[in-house]
Amino acid sequence: IRVRNAGRTVAARAASWLVGAGWTTWAMTHGPLTWAALGSLATIGVGIGATARSVALYEEAREEEAIAAEQRAIAAELSAERRAIAAEWVERIGRICQIKVRVLAVEMWPTGTGYSLDLEPQGGITYDRIAQYSVQLSADARLPHGCTATAIPGIHQGRAILDVTTVNVLKDDCPYPDDYSPLSVLTGLPWGVRTNGAPVSAYLREQCALVVGPTGSGKTNMIHTILAGFARAQDVLTWVIDLNAGSAGLPWVLPALNGELKTSDDKPVRPGIDWLASTHAEALLMLDAALAVGLHRKKAYQDLLAKADTDLLPISAKIPQILLVIDEGAEILTSSDPQTKQLAKKILEVIRMLRAMGIRTVLTALGATGSVLGNLMIRREAKVRAALTGGESEGMDLGKMFPGRRGLRVEQAPYKGAGFMGTPESPAALFKTWRIKPSQIREITVATSDQHPRLDSVSANAAGPSYARRWDTERTAWMHDLTPTTDTDQADQPPAGGAGTLNLSALREQAGAKPSPDEEVLRQFRAQIDAEFATAPEPRTDNESAPPAGTAGLNLSAHRREREQGPVWLPQVLAAIKATGTEGMKPSAVADLVGKDRKTVRAALQGAVERGQLVYRDNGPHSVYVHPDHA
User: What is the mean pLDDT of residues 207-223?
Assistant: First the structure.
C-alpha cells in the first residue's frame, strides 16, 4: 500500500501469507512428513510462485505505462512549443522576406542556447534569399546582442536550415578543453565553437588558411589555439615564421629548450613546434627547405602514389604534413621592401606548387582589406578563413572575406576572440575561439611530446643541413639573448668624454651597434675639441636662414635630418599605408602601429604630406592618409 501497488498485487500477497500460515498451522498439528502434507506444500509453492510472477509482470507493465504517459505529456508539451515556434517563424519570414515557407522540423540545441528550423521555401527560392535578411529577422525576433538568425543550406537545394541563437555565448571566454587526445589533419583540427556549442574544425590537407584580426581582437590567442591543434595532430609538423621576434612560437619552444619541462618518465620534452624563424635569413632557409622537400617528394614517392592509386601523397605519421604558420604573412605578400619580397615570392611558390605533397600554409593579417585579399592566390587557395572582429569595423570588409555570404556584420561579434569562420564544409557564421593560457601551452607541449612525428628520411635528406641544425646553439642564440635592444641604460650614464660632452639622443637612437675602438678614440678626440674650442656651426642649406649675428648655438644635424626626411619609423608607416590601397589609414591606426602618441604621429604625417610622400584625404572624422600611388 505504501509503494502504491495494484489491488491484485496486494490481494495476491495477502493470500500467499494466509495460505502459508494455514499450511504451517495444519502441518504442526498433523506432522509435515506425510505425503498429504508434502504434496499440498508443493502445490501451494507452485501456486504462490506463479501468482508472484504474474503480479510482478503486471507491476512492470503499470510502471512502463506510467513512464510512457509521462513522456507523452512531455512530448505533447514540446510539440506545442515547437508548433508555436514554427508558426511564429513562418509568419515572420513571410512578413519580412516576402517568402512562403513550410517548417518541417524544429530541433532544440542540447546546450540550451537556441534552436534550428528545417525550412522548405516555396517557389524554388534558395537559402541565400533568407540569409540576406538575417539582421532584420534577428531584430524582429528581439534576439539579444550577439545572437543571430542565420540561414544555411539544407539537405538539398530546396531546403534551408535557420539557426536561431537565443543566448549570447560569445561574450564570455571559452576555455580550451582539457582533452589533449591525438588528432589528425585528415579528420579535421578544431579551432573553436559555434554559437550552438558545436566545435568548428579546419580541414587543411588540401586547403590553406587565412586568419585576420585587428590589434586587440584575440588573434595571437587564436594562433596559439591553432598551434595547439597542430601539436596534438599525429601527422603534422609545424613550422612557424614570425618576424616580430618570433613571439608566436616562443612559448612552444623555450620551455622545452631550457629543460624546464619533463615527461612523466623523466624524459626530455620536444618543442611544441618543429621549426621557428624570426629573421628574414632564417625564414628564407625554412622556405627553401619546404620547397626542396615538396619537389623531392614529387619524385621520390612516385611508387607510393602509384601503389595507392592517387595523386595526393598519403599523409600519415610516417610521412607527415608540413603546415607553415606565417604571422602577418598577408602583409609580407603585399610589402614593397626588397628583402621581404623574396619571402613573398617563396611563400607564393609554396602555396602554388606543394598542395599534393602535403605542405600548406596558415597566413594571418591585421585586416580584411583589398590589399590583403587582392591576391588571387590567397583567395583561391585559402578557403579556410577566420575573421576576428573585436568590434573593429575599420579594415574588416566581411563581404570580401566571405564572398557570397550575406547578413554578416561586425556588430554581431564585438567581443575579443569572437568573429566569423567559414570553410568549404561549413558556411561562414559566428564562432568563438578557445582561450588558451600559457600554462596550458606547457601542458600540451608535455602531453604531446611523444605524439609528434619525425620528418621522413626522404624529406629530411632534401631539407639538408639547414633543417637538421635548426636547433643548434648559434641558430637559437637569439631566443636566449636578453640584452636590451634600446639604449635607455646608456642614456642614464655620462659619456666617457667628460661632463661637458653632449649626449645627443637623436643620434644615439640611430646608432644601433656598439662603437668600435677607433670610433671611441675619434669620439674622445672630438670631445676634447668641443671642450677646448667653440662648437662650429654646420653648413646650412639654401632653405635655412642664417642665425642672427653674434648668436651662438648648436646646429643639430640629426634633428634637421628628421625635419627633412621624417622620423626613423616613417618608412614603416609609408609601407603600411601603401599596403592599405585606396582605403588609407587614420592617424589613430598609425599611432597604434608605431606605439607613438597621436600628436607626434600627426606632425610626422603632415610633414610627409608637405614632402609629397603622402596625400591627406579630408573627410571630417573619417579623414585618412593615402599613398600617392593610390590617391
Answer: 90
